[in-house]
Design goal:
With 379 residues, the chain is mostly helical. It is built from 21 helices and no strands. Helix 5 packs across helix 17, helix 6 (83-95) runs antiparallel to helix 11 (152-162) and helix 6 (83-95) packs across helix 17 (251-274). The mean pLDDT is 88.
């Protein structure tokens, strides 16, 4: 009897004996994310570590994603505390050229319009409360709505403050939709614009001086401190990274922030976010509801930017291609690249990348401001 019991214990200690149907399903989902990263090139810096983290999280018996597991420890240190998002924002600032937005300030309005998805989804999450087994309060709804900004670090930062119990699901949704920008956005852009509008050529951007680029992060931070101090953790990190880039006297720091620092944080963040793909956490009605609401938020944000672009084109004396409004979501620089690609489909010589970078970088600021407003209202 002891021998039989010993064999049973040995069998249950193997992957074949201990794996559940849910774990097997989530392993397939994780492999799909890895496939999209490698084969399709969909934001591989995000999807590859997230997908691999999902694989590790669903290994039976090992407990890698448990609080005492090595990925669980990383998650608690960097994501639950909100530290990783701030470091990512610093790296984004060091890699971002705000010149296109400074050269054409009105494109910043497109970045603001794209944040409509955040507030529309906040209302939608509240409306779904009590239906289909979903239970979201106002703080939860705000945390879910921020997915519409297509800004993973901002979504993690806000959720860690308002709805830590939903942090894993929100992080997975935010980063998944950021990576799937090339799939989600083009159909919306084509549906809302005509071929003639997609072929509009915009005027050459003016040259932006070094002084303007140095003053911009300082002024932006000053305005944030005066009006929305709750947004300063995110905006402060972003603007510090950008000042390091533009000042020209700390090249070593700039290279470190742009390279080794953000690479290390991206690896750790992706792997730890992937741990929330474990079957016991992901295969729940609440998580599926967050994924659906996140998709709607992102879609509404994209549509809002495009529609304002159409309106601005009609009212402005200078031509504005409505496609650049889709870059108002803050998936930098993927959204701008998608805008450029769709524009080239209609006119092979119409390069919209630099024009789209204006709304794209303003979307980063816009999502941080939206998070600050929500924190101020709900904290």
């Amino acid at each position: 009897m002891n021998l039989i019991s010993g064999f049973q214990n040995l069998w249950m200690s193997t992957g074949l004996g201990a794996i559940t149907a849910g774990q097997a399903a989530m392993i397939l989902v994780s492999l799909l994310l890895i496939y999209l990263a490698i084969r399709k090139g969909f934001e591989p810096l995000l999807l590859l570590p997230i997908g691999f983290g999902g694989l590790l999280a669903n290994i039976p018996v090992a407990g890698i994603a448990d609080p005492e597991g090595f990925l669980g420890i990383i998650y608690g240190f960097g994501i639950s505390t909100g530290l990783f998002p701030l470091l990512i924002f610093m790296g984004v600032g060091a890699m971002t050229d705000f010149g296109p937005m400074i050269a054409n300030p009105k494109t910043a309005l497109l970045g603001g319009a794209a944040q409509i998805g955040i507030f529309a989804t906040l209302v939608g999450a509240i409306a779904l409360n009590g239906h289909a087994g979903l239970s979201f309060d106002l703080r939860d709804a705000a945390s879910i709505g921020i997915i519409g900004g297509a800004d993973g670090p901002t979504a993690i930062f806000l959720a860690s403050r308002l709805s830590p119990q939903l942090l894993g699901s929100i992080a997975v949704a935010a980063y998944s939709y950021m990576a799937l920008v090339p799939i989600i956005q083009p159909p919306i852009m084509r549906f809302l614009t005509t071929k003639k509008e997609r072929a509009i050529r915009m005027n050459q951007l003016r040259h932006v001086t070094k002084r303007e680029k140095i003053v911009f992060p300082l002024v932006t931070l000053g305005i944030s401190i005066l009006l929305i101090p709750t947004a300063t953790p995110l905006l402060g990190s972003l603007m510090f990274g950008n000042l390091v880039r533009e000042c020209g006297v700390v090249d070593r720091l700039s290279r470190t922030i742009q390279g080794p620092m953000i690479d290390i944080v991206t690896i750790l963040l992706g792997l730890s976010v992937g741990t929330k793909l474990s079957s016991d956490k992901f295969l729940q009605v609440e998580t599926l509801g967050i994924l659906l609401l996140g998709f709607l938020a992102f879609s509404i944000g994209t549509a809002g930017g495009v529609l304002l672009g159409k309106l601005m084109n009609r009212m402005s004396k200078d031509p504005i291609n409505p496609l650049i409004g889709a870059a108002g979501v803050s998936a930098v620089p993927m959204a701008a690249r998608v805008v450029n690609k769709v524009g080239l489909e209609n006119d092979p010589d119409n390069y919209l990348l630099m024009h789209a970078m204006g709304p794209n970088v303003s979307g980063v600021i816009g999502s941080a401001v939206a998070a600050g407003v929500l924190l101020a209202l709900l904290s």
